[in-house]
Amino acid sequence: MAETGTGLECIVKLGGSAVTDKNTLETPRLDAIRAAADIISQVRGRYIVVHGAGSFGHFQAREHGVVWGYRDKETAAEVQTVKLGFCRTRQSVTKLLHLITEEFVGRGIPAVGVSPLSSWVTDDASVVKADTDNIRDMLLEGFVPVMHGDAVLDRRRGCTILSGDTIIKHLCGVFHPPRVVFLTDVAGIYDRPPEQPAGAQLIPEIQVDQDGKLHVSIATSSQAHDVTGGIALKLKSAVDIVTESNGRTCVMVCGIQSGTAVRACVEGQLPKGTGTIVQLNMCKHPDEVT
């Protein structure tokens, strides 16, 4: 059931690759976390922050097959391996949550860490239960909920991985914010992986039809240990947010340490050529500036 009256202005996603070194186990990018804190400290109004796990959790989840759960395992030892992997994944992701909320609170932001495990449940990786009442109450009381990708219980698999992007998509269906801002380690969405030597080009705008069809060609890739699907799933989440809101919610993607990030989060503006906006085809974006 849709929530009303919260006045949620924006959901901010801190990408796992932006706030951690995704190739090195449990290595935060403290400069990026501080940049995020600086951005959020300038925000006025009601916001939700969701961060990816990056190198906190992905390695453990991949090693133990947490995303696929344990219900199909043939031996007790195999089940135990997945369950211990579940626990180790959670230990890791909550370390990063603590680092981020500690930095936020130190900047005077009333940030409250919220782990999905306690109140979110999936069925074959689809969200079937999510307690958003406590999120609503935090927003109304002036707190900033900080959520994260998490290992959660799953009715069919036993357990699985709930990505931060899936969390955001669900929250958008409940709170209907006018925009979602993805803060990443690159300037936006490119026509191919930006690390490729061929010369990737930033895509300033992605038009999406109501059926989810894109009007651009994008080649994607995902690192081997990324259990949440990499940029392909993130792009799908952005498309779903735009289409399911009938264009009422737009998605902005920009670099976490750019001046554009401040404008996107604080002012709701994305100057042309400084990031990527995903919007419904034939809908003029209200915050576009030249």
Task: Report a brief summary of the structure.
The protein is α/β, with parallel strands linked by helices. The chain has helices at 16-19, 30-41, 58-64, 76-106, 133-140, 164-175, 230-244, 259-267; strands at residues 8-14, 46-51, 111-114, 120-123, 126-130, 144-148, 150-154, 158-162, 179-184, 205-208, 250-255, 270-271, 276-280, 288-289. Helices cover 34% and strands 23% of the residues.
Keywords:
two-stranded antiparallel ribbon; Carbamate kinase; 34% helix; disordered C terminus; 14 strands; alpha/beta; 290 residues; 8-stranded mixed β-sheet
Secondary-structure arrangement, i.e. CATH architecture: 3-Layer(aba) Sandwich
Number of helices: 8
Q: What structural category characterises the helix and strand content?
A: alpha/beta
- Contiguous low-pLDDT stretches (5 residues minimum) are 222-229, 283-290
What is the overall pLDDT average? 89
Whole-number radius of gyration?
A: 18 Å
Largest sheet: 8 strands, mixed
Count of folded domains: 1
CATH topology: Carbamate kinase
